[in-house]
Amino acid sequence: MLPDPKIGPVIILDHDIGKILPPSNDQEGQPHDIPSADIVASLPELREDFDELTARSMILAIRHQHAKAEIPLNAPPLTETILQFIKKADLSAAAEESREAAEKMKELVPKILELFPYIVPELNVNSCMGGKAEGYLCDGYLFLFKEPVKEKLLCNLKVQNAPVFKGQDPVWNEMALALAGAGLITTKAGAKGAGKKSCLFTIKTPQGQEKAIAIPVSNLAPHLTNRWLQTNIPKIEVL
């Protein structure tokens, strides 16, 4: 708990304020926490409303919110308390943003179902286009990796992604459940079942473990399967 209730609103309003600044050439790639801290440190009101120790703790916490290991050893203990407050506030905001995006995605279900068949041929199945594969056709199923599918759907829907928090991706879940409900993807591949919310299988590929949706080959156009089968097909294991 913060010792001064005034700290919370100031931190929530200011810890990301550096995001509004366009980066200069010498700041390219610099995290937003550094300019945020610089802006807060320059405010005379900070030291009018807070004692020096509290003000220093706030500045250090903002400056190192994404680089905790770099906090000076002589930082006031209050710095850690404020850092934890920032983390909880960010998690809460991310959860709310993700929930709102998932609700919006429910409204877009008809468009998702319309777009999905058109994005499947665009994916680099079995590395048929060269480079890194975005899915594999193997053992009677087309396994498509989650991230490329999600990215293409979001791009075509012209909506932004939302944060994933605590391992949950409500936006993807709404997409996947809609696709499964319409029979465009399956939730059972052989003896293996997909995740109840995500409709994802974990598969072992030459690239390592991947999360993927599955489509029975019988649902696919023959010209697509013929094209994908012309490439070398690695061994895929559904875990």
What is the topology, as strand order, of the major beta sheet? 1-2-6-5-7
Content-based structural category: alpha+beta
Distance between the termini: 44 Å
Largest sheet composition: 5 strands, antiparallel
Average pLDDT, to the nearest integer? 85
Shape annotation: elongated
N to C succession of SSEs? HHHHHHEEHHEEEEHE
Low-confidence blocks of residues: none
The percent range for helix content is 40-55%
Number of helices: 9
Defining traits:
two-stranded antiparallel sheet, single chain, 9 helices, alpha+beta, 5-stranded antiparallel sheet, elongated, 239 residues, 12% strand
Explain what this protein looks like in three dimensions.
With about 240 residues, the protein is of the alpha+beta class. The chain is about 45% helix and about 10% strand. It has 9 helices and 7 strands; from the N terminus they run ααααααββααββββαβ. It has helices at about 5-15, 35-40, 45-50, 50-65, 80-105, 110-120, 145-155, 170-180, 220-230; strands at about 135-140, 140-145, 190, 190-195, 200-205, 210-215, 235-239. The strands form 2 sheets. The chain has a 5-stranded antiparallel sheet with strand order 1-2-6-5-7. It has a two-stranded antiparallel ribbon with strand order 3-4. β1 and β2 (about 140-145) form a beta hairpin. α5 (about 80-105) packs parallel to α8 and α6 (about 110-120) crosses α8. The relative contact order is 0.11. The model has no long low-confidence stretch (mean pLDDT about 85).
